[in-house]
Amino acid sequence: GEHVLEAAAHVRKIVRSRDGEGSVLGTLYCTNLRVAFVPEPPHSSTWFSPAVNSFTKAKVLTASSTLKFIPEELVLYCRDFRVLRFRFCNSGLESRACQVSSYHCRQGHPPRRPSPAGDSQGPSSSPSTLLFERPCDWEKELRRLGAAGWRVSPVNERFDMATSLPKYLWVPSRLLDNELKRAFGHFNARRIPRLCWHHPGGSDLLRAAGFHADSDPEKEDVRSVEALMLAGHAQCVIVETTADLPSPAEIQLSYLKLRALCLPDSSVADEKWLSALEGTRWLEHVRACVRKACEVAALLAERSCSIMLQESDDRDLNCLLASLIQVLSDPHTRTQSGFQSLLQKEWVVAGHPFLHGAGNRTQES
């Protein structure tokens, strides 16, 4: 079980807000499992990895470190990128502060705590999560978005039009299913443009695969393609999803490096951890994806048009970018049920190949 190894009372946790810097008085504990701060009255505890500081000099603590001064401030650099600060000055327990600061480093990385019992319910256990397996789910979400110019089409109900697309699609209301069927052959894997999200200002976010090599712009079928892409707007902006973004294989490799770095048995020294993090290129890839999502989200808010995300097979980066744009633009997707529904719509039923490695699958013809 868990037991307290060292404790320092009357410690002040530094709290920053818009009004400036303040502090919370409490007790800092070092147990055999974690470091925890308990405010007065008792509050919650936090997991973190330590470093130490003084107002006159700073020292990064490792397992072999020896403190030659009494710390006045302890700075904790968390694995989730939070930075927590605790001040021991004027507490009257400077020796305790030194022991708490150094003991956790000698312990190394704390083991992971087991998940609480009964916390094994999956996303589908929430009754408000839409699975998008029935027409009523698509209708409900369409009403929430207020997309009056769109309807739910059962054109792919038997997966005879496109095996990797969902059964039901959001398509322009004035486009009949017979006209819609003409458009499938003009896109890779027959993944036609369809609505992802409707902006309250009137813009529409679409996603689609790349144009098929045999697509003939002179054919009458292209009128159906234009109707899908314009969606009642005067202009359609095509966003090449792969431009300025890392490939799925690069993202996967970066994630594997990040995961290895964050494991408790990582061999990277604490003082080199941030450099190793930068070397994974994970933050670089995240920054590129978020930047592009912000650009598209701003375009949706500024102009009344249709914006189509286009990727060669529409099953990797389109899933990512469409999700990020909605998380940035739609507060509902930042709730638990909304985020679960978003993943279901843009990843699961949209045909993302979860069981295949990135960039290592046969493209559907």
Would you give an account of this structure?
The chain is of the alpha+beta class. The protein contains nine helices and 13 strands. Helix 7 (282-302) packs across helix 8 and helix 8 (317-329) packs antiparallel against helix 9 (336-348). It has helices at residues 94-107, 135-145, 177-180, 222-230, 248-262, 273-279, 282-302, 317-329, 336-348, and strands spanning 4-17, 20-31, 35-39, 49-53, 58-59, 73-77, 83-87, 150-153, 169-172, 194-198, 204-209, 236-240, 306-311. The chain has two domains: 4-107, PH-domain like, CATH 2.30.29; 128-246 and 281-348, no CATH class. The protein has a seven-stranded antiparallel sheet with strand order 3-2-1-7-6-4-5.
The secondary-structure element order is EEEEEEEHHEEHEEHEHHHEHH
Helix content: 25-40%
Mean pLDDT: 83
CA gyration radius, whole angstroms: 26 Å
Summarize the biggest pleated sheet: 7 strands, antiparallel
Helix-strand category: alpha+beta
User: Strands across the major sheet, in which order?
Assistant: 3-2-1-7-6-4-5
> What is the number of strand segments?
13
Number of helices: 9
Strand percentage: 15-25%
Number of domains: 2
Apparent shape: elongated
**Low-confidence spans: pLDDT under 50, at least 5 residues?**
43-54, 108-127, 361-365
End-to-end CA span: 57 Å
Short note summarizing the structure:
This protein is of the alpha+beta class and 365 residues long.
Index terms:
4-stranded mixed β-sheet, alpha+beta, PH-domain like, 9 helices, 7-stranded antiparallel β-sheet, Myotubularin, 365 residues, 13 strands, 29% helix, disordered C terminus, Prot-tyrosine_phosphatase-like, 2 domains, elongated
